[in-house]
Amino acid sequence: MAELFENIKKLCLADGTSGDEGDVTKLILSMLPQECDAKIDPLGNIIVNKKGATTPKNKVMLAAHQDEVGFIVTYITDDGNLKFTTVGGINPEVVIGRQLHFKNGTVGVVGGKAVHQQSPKERDEPVKLDTLTIDIGASSKAEAGKYVSLGDCAYFKSDYTELGNGYLREKALDDRIGCAIMVDILNKDLPYDVTCVFTVQEEIGTRGAKVAAYTVKPDYAIVLETTTACDFAGNDGEKRVCELGKGCVVSYMDRSTIYDRELYRLGFEKAKEINVPCQTKTLVAGGNDSGAIHSSVGGIRTVALSVPCRYLHSPSCMIKKSDVQSTAELAYAMYLALAEK
Predict the structure, then answer these.
(1) Contact criterion met (CB below 8 Å) for 166 and 324
(2) Over pLDDT 90: what percentage of the chain?
(3) Residue 294 and which of 81, 88, 99, 223 are 20 to 30 A apart at CA?
């Protein structure tokens, strides 16, 4: 498993928001064994076919998305500050005061009106994105324009950090974890043919997944993801959703998919068979590439296997390494089961 986490580290440190995944794509391609047949489609998905020892009864597609949430510059003010919007769902509360960086090395800080200058009403209201700017230290529009152009993407500045008791935090764990698990599978000697798709533009509407599903036309799809864990102070009962340390999350429903009931049950059966922990979510929330895949090409039977993750879409996503291991093992077991189902 050491190589799996080393790949997660490398992938998370790369930058690639929706529509700007190129650096992540190059990194993933460098991690694939030579015997893989990898193609990049017009939207940017990496579609990888690998021959196994035998041709399976069913075509199985594994999918995980390359892109992360980020920011895009929309305007430069006369005094050299950058107006921006988010690419994907980011709570403005986690943005203010954060350090961001651009791929050309430019660094900035997200700022807004200081608390000392806010009225009591402003202090009680949520932060609004359109009141914030990225300050790169420029003093004019002309100076800022030497470093940043409209349409440039900015990323959370963060570092891969291993915490105590098997926890780690970093940006972009959603969904570089899923990508790393697929890389790990593709580097095995496989008993059956498999197709792995590293999708693009998941964070802005699962666009890459729909395109890839029509290209691959699988019998079954396994979507590898992270999912929101709220197992911290202030959340009780079902509001905890899922918990770090309790294994892979097999979903029965989210806001874009009602999952195949037989595959949902099979996930728990296989987890018990291979002796890895497994859980489900206690709230219907979120969504992922499954929403696009399961409703494509006349319908594709789909299951989602996710790593529970705290503080999603922030610079400090947090997961537990044991959950990554259980998800990787269950993903491989499900691929074997569905290939000959």
Answers:
(1) no
(2) 83
(3) 88
